[in-house]
Amino acid sequence: MNFFKFFYKCLYNFKALAYSRLQPITKSLFHVTVMTFIAFLPFIIVSSVTLQNQLNQIEALVESELPDFSITSHQLVSEISEPFVQHSGTTGYFIVDPQNELDEQTILEYGNGVALLQNGLITFSDGQSQEISYTLLGVDQMSRDQILEHLADLSGFMPIMLTLISFFNYASLLGTTFLGITLLGLVGLLMKGKRKQLQYKHLWVMSAYSITLPVILFGWMEVLVEVPALLLIIACIGMLYGAVRQVPIPKPRPTRPNKQPH
After folding, report:
1. Are strands 84-88 and 75-78 parallel, antiparallel or unpaired?
2. Model's pTM, two decimal places?
3. 97-136: per-residue pLDDT in tens?
4. What is the DSSP track for the chain?
């Protein structure tokens, strides 16, 4: 069967999920890779748009009235005695905190903006944050005026940086997905009942296909609303249970009647 046709059937058809136990492991691995990428797409899109917007915010805010500061040996240096916080209705908050007096949770409470910390900057928006070190940005010695020039150069580097960030996040998510499939396959051993023909390798493959709909829905909904992880776990277990129920129970072999001696 065509890969994409079977992929589509795995979203709703429990018989297809039951049949997946016969699929080669290589196809299962490819299926998980594609499924995880589809689930990860909203994160890539939102992160790219957010990071680009926040870079524009940095340029606008650095141009405004800020305390004197510089970056020396990949560290932020300033004579201010407490964190500087400035707000703009269009660009959000700009924070200068060379002593790291504000923790990440406190910074997130500001809602939207950029924070320059001792060893790197944090862009934050709607409870999500992304930290980038000055080392990664290639900033060693730089004044405030030089930062503006560097930000212009960074805009050209943005596609490469977004690709690297997305790749590492995707690799991490893919590893987590395989771990979840492994654990779900163990749960499947408790579901098989009289289906003695189901071995762990069959249940692992069935788990890989059964989580298709829950994982994709979770990935796309997570960028809009916060979805409890427990709901994802329950949905994955439910899909696997439905698939296992479609696997036929072997019929008992008929017993041969004992031959009577003549």
Report:
1. unpaired
2. 0.67
3. 888 888 888 888 888 888 888 888 888 887 788 888 888 7
4. --HHHHHHHTTT-HHHHHHGGGS-HHHHHHHHHHHHHHHHHHHHHHHHHHHHHHHHHHHHHHTSS---EEEETTEEEE--SS-EEEEETTTEEEEE-TT--S-HHHHHTT-EEEEE-SSEEEEEETTEEEEEEHHHHT-SEEEHHHHHHHHHHHHHHHHHHHHHHHHHHHHHHHHHHHHHHHHHHHHHTTT-TT-TT--HHHHHHHHHHHTHHHHHHHHHHTTTS---HHHHHHHHHHHHHHHHHTSPPPPPPPPPPPPPP-
Of 189, 232, 183, 198, the closest CA to residue 212 belongs to: 232
Q: What b-and-e string marks burial along 82-109, b requiring 16 or more CB atoms within 10 Å of the CB?
A: ebbebeeeebbbbbbbbeeebeeeebbe
Amino acid occupying residue 185: G
| Residue of 165, 153, 170 lying closest to 55 (CA atoms) | 153
Structure tokens given for 154: 């960074």
pLDDT by residue (tens digit) across 48-79? 887 777 677 667 666 666 677 777 877 888 88
Tell me how far apart the alpha carbons of residues 30 and 35 are, in angstroms, rounded to a whole number: 9
Count how many Cα atoms sit within 13 Å of the Cα of residue 145 in the half-sphere of its side chain: 0
Give the other-Cβ count within 10 Å of 124's Cβ: 24
